[in-house]
Design brief:
4 helices
Length: about 110
């Protein structure tokens, strides 16, 4: 029996790595389905539009940080605008920031 895994970025974002999301995007973009035709495909358009939408929802400072994180993760420049990758990095940053903020608040309240 093959173990079933649900790699749902919205439900299990914290359990997925950037590398896993990147491999998934590459699969969808170029190798996954016969009807995906690279640059002319609806999949490529969707990946780019979703990334553009997300980028427009954050501050310029956050966008720069996300871009830096994508570079540090070794994501090629051509793929950095893809929505799932942008979302993963954005959520990692937001959750890390929120966790840190909660720890500081907890420390302040314990005093």
């Amino acid at each position: 029996d093959i173990e079933q895994r649900e790699d749902n970025l919205f439900k299990n974002c914290a359990q997925l790595t950037v590398a896993q999301v990147y491999r998934s995007v590459l699969f969808l973009y170029g190798n996954g389905y016969d009807y995906v035709q690279k640059e002319n495909s609806w999949m490529a358009t969707d990946l780019l539009w979703s990334g553009t939408y997300l980028k427009n929802q954050v501050t310029d400072e956050m966008a720069e940080r996300i871009e830096d994180d994508l570079k540090q993760a070794g994501i090629p420049e051509a793929c950095r605008g893809f929505g799932p990758l942008y979302y993963k990095i954005m959520m990692d940053r937001m959750c890390a920031s929120n966790h840190h903020a909660l720890k500081n608040l907890q420390g302040a309240l314990e005093r």
